[in-house]
């Protein structure tokens, strides 16, 4: 049987909740830290002052995050409000991001190696935790090419993401998968963590 091919990573895409309920598109509109570009599919964290910034390196242990960006709003140089896939780091003001902050949200994401080349995992990774790659944002598509790193899947409590399932529709073979479904590991989600953001 031929499967659809995933040729490149595409960021984190919200699809449903891990409790089985459908994802209803709920987001929180959050101010973006000045001078920060943000892209759809990007993992962000809340920082001092209540704004959000991109998580700089998803391939690290013990990272905190608040959610995933699904779009932005900003004021352009002519004073018009723009709804867009991404916001540049400069030339715009009043930048707000639509962020999926639900700790129960599941995200579909591509599996890569540590150099961002497509890779695969087996179903044995379900239930493990995994690290990610931040990737690079595209001004053309407005998306970021974040992914998760196949070789990092492990039973460790310091990885940011928990693997909920593999995606059979885009399997590379009968037993290997190029996409997985993940959620934030509850320890590191800022809406659940008992460690608060520092006051500014």
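-> sequence recovered:
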């Amino acid at each position: 049987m031929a499967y659809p091919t995933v040729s490149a990573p595409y960021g984190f895409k919200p699809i449903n909740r891990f409790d089985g309920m459908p994802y209803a598109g709920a987001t929180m509109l959050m101010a973006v830290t000045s001078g920060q570009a943000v892209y759809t599919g990007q993992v962000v964290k809340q920082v001092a002052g209540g704004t959000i910034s991109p998580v700089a390196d998803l391939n690290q242990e013990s990272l905190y995050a608040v959610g995933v960006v699904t779009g932005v709003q900003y004021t352009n140089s002519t004073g018009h409000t723009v709804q867009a896939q991404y916001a540049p780091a400069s030339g715009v003001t009043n930048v707000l991001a639509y962020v999926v902050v639900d700790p129960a949200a599941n995200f579909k994401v591509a599996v890569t190696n540590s150099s961002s080349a497509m890779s695969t995992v087996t179903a044995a990774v379900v239930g493990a935790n995994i690290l990610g790659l931040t990737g690079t944002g595209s001004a053309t598509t407005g998306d970021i090419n974040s992914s998760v790193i196949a070789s990092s899947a492990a039973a460790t409590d310091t990885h940011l993401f928990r693997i909920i399932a593999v995606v059979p529709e885009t399997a590379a073979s009968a037993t290997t998968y190029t996409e997985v479904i993940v959620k934030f590991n509850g320890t590191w989600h800022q809406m659940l963590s008992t460690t608060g953001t520092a006051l500014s």
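The two ends are 56 Å apart (CA to CA).
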